[in-house]
Write a structure and sequence with these properties.
This protein is an alpha/beta fold. The chain folds into two domains: 283 residues, FAD/NAD(P)-binding domain; 150 residues, Elongation Factor Tu (Ef-tu), domain 3 (Beta Barrel), CATH 2.40.30. The chain is built from 14 helices and 16 strands. The strands form four sheets. A six-stranded antiparallel sheet has the order 10-11-12-13-9-14. Helix 1 runs parallel beside helix 11, helix 2 packs parallel to helix 11 and helix 2 packs parallel to helix 13. The relative contact order is 0.17. Bound molecules: flavin-adenine dinucleotide. Flavin-adenine dinucleotide binds next to helix 1, strand 15 and helix 11.
Length: 443
């Protein structure tokens, strides 16, 4: 009988354990809590949701809703448990978090194939291993990974700028141009007049922020983190002086407006998120502003008045690996091919995405999956973990429509476009896994 060790019984580790147990594997599942807690977990339960109790939307015109639909086709284990603990939240799948964690724990405890071992793992054991220790992996295991993979391949913080839908950008105002016309015009430029710039800076200064956790406060005070400047929130830079942004990340040098030849007072640049350019990233826009505030304030940027956000910005403690450089196609480590990485550590972001990678890695290890169709969100998440992005360091990815290849003939109506993208993904997944989809339909 095949044996495997899984380290970390959070969302991805619990999903992987249940998947492999169902396929006859003997699973040793290691969890360091309750003896050793992380900065955010509060109980000894497995699959504890550390913050929001929402697994986001179930609507098929959202990236997360589509991902969940695809995961159901592939017989995800934790999603049905989440549905059984559902609390009213409109189109969102929100759960009673205590009940959800208790149910997952009970299911694992009572599974004869799974041995739950409550202790911190400080080194990778011999044999097949799934490493799923999450964004708050213990120091000891991170230190071990540092020795195995090298310091450059580990990230400890996540500074994410918002990502917006290309269709929502006003292309009459925004223009493509390289600074001083040197190189390809890869970036889109949002040019500010003087008044527009100061209005934006004032809004950033007044915007309501997320409460930082204690460990994040240590980070922002600069203690012990020498890469702190690179992750500075845009509103914190604005706080240093009203002109700091236009002398830094929003400098207008070499970016005259082509139509008028006029020099802009400040410029915020947009960088393409994918080859089809269906989504753009606000360069330097990493932020701790609350989501509704981001929506309000970033719409003050000329050309982004009607911006639709595919992902909001954030900054938080997040241990993850430089997956495109250190993973094989099957999500195992190049340095140790019998060790697979799942969950947030692999570079996905979000509860559902983490569960999805646990499910994915289990199917890969069982020899049932070597690739997924490119038209599926899950297939694209997998691809993104492996693709080196030119000119930028690897940053975590969540499920969003910007990941999907464009439609051959996209309609103008955005809702219809998303509906068509969703239908294409689900049909593709169903025809790739006909037996699995029949199982789901019959309940
Ligand atoms: C503070 C914070 C808030 C977040 N809020 C949200 C949110 O609201 N919505 C959202 O979608 N996503 C959120 N995330 C992101 C992410 O979706 C969750 O962190 C998710 O739980 C990650 O799943 P995982 O399986 O990778 O790790 P986890 O679910 O964290 O599981 C990892 C497990 O490994 C254990 N562990 C760690 N090190 C060791 C070790 N050495 N030996 C044994 N066990 C170990 C941990 O105790 C933990 O139980 C948040 C992340 C953080 C850090």
């Amino acid at each position: 009988m095949s044996e495997i060790s899984i380290i970390g019984a959070g969302l991805s580790g619990s999903e992987a354990a249940l998947q492999l147990a169902a396929r006859g594997y003997k699973v040793k599942l290691y969890e360091m809590r309750p003896e050793r807690q992380t900065e955010a977990h509060q109980t000894g339960h497995l699959a504890e949701l550390v913050c929001s109790n929402s697994l986001k939307s179930t609507r098929l015109d959202t990236g997360s809703g589509l991902l969940k639909a695809e995961m159901q086709i592939l017989s995800c284990k934790l999603l049905p448990i989440a549905h059984s603990c559902k609390v009213p939240a409109g189109h969102a799948l929100a759960v009673d978090r205590a009940l959800f964690a208790a149910k997952v724990t009970a299911e694992i405890d009572s599974n004869p194939q799974i041995q739950l071992i409550r202790r911190e793992v400080t080194e990778l054991p011999e044999g097949k291993v799934i490493l799923a220790t999450g964004p708050l992996s213990s120091d000891a295991i991170m230190h071990h990974l540092q020795q195995l993979l090298g310091e450059d391949h580990l990230f400890f913080f996540d500074a994410i700028a918002p990502i917006i839908d290309t269709d929502s950008i006003d292309m009459d105002k925004v223009y493509a141009k390289a600074r001083y016309d040197k190189g390809e015009p890869d970036y889109l430029n949002c040019a500010f007049e003087r008044d527009e710039y100061y209005r934006f800076v004032d809004a950033l200064l007044e915007g309501e922020k997320h409460e930082a956790h204690e460990f994040e406060n240590a980070f922002f005070s600069g203690k012990n983190f020498n890469f702190y400047e690179n992750c500075m929130p845009i509103e914190e830079l604005a706080r240093r002086g009203k002109d700091t942004l236009r002398h830094g990340v929003m400098r207008p040098m070499g970016l005259e407006i082509p139509a008028t030849g006029k020099k802009a007072y400040a410029v915020l640049q947009l960088r393409a998120e994918n080859q089809d350019r269906t989504a753009y990233n606000l360069v330097g826009g990493q932020t701790m502003l609350r989501y509704p505030e981001q929506k309000r304030i970033f719409k003050l940027i000329p050309g982004l008045e009607n911006a639709e956000f595919l992902r909001y910005g954030s900054i938080h403690r997040n241990s993850y690996l430089n997956s495109p450089l250190i993973l094989n196609e099957n999500l195992s480590l190049k340095a140790r091919e019998d060790v697979w990485i799942a969950g947030q550590l692999s570079g996905v972001e979000g509860y559902v995405e983490c569960i999805a990678t646990g499910m994915l890695v289990a199917a890969i290890i069982a020899g049932e999956l070597s690739s997924l169709p490119e038209h599926t969100v899950l297939g694209q998440l997998w691809r993104r973990l492996l693709s080196v992005q030119p000119k930028q360091s690897f940053s975590p990815v969540n499920a969003n429509f910007g990941l999907l290849p464009a439609l051959a003939a996209p309609p103008r109506d955005k809702k219809l476009k998303r509906q068509m993208l969703s239908e294409r993904s689900i049909q593709t997944m169903r025809s790739a896994f006909p037996e699995a989809s029949e199982q789901t339909e019959s309940g």
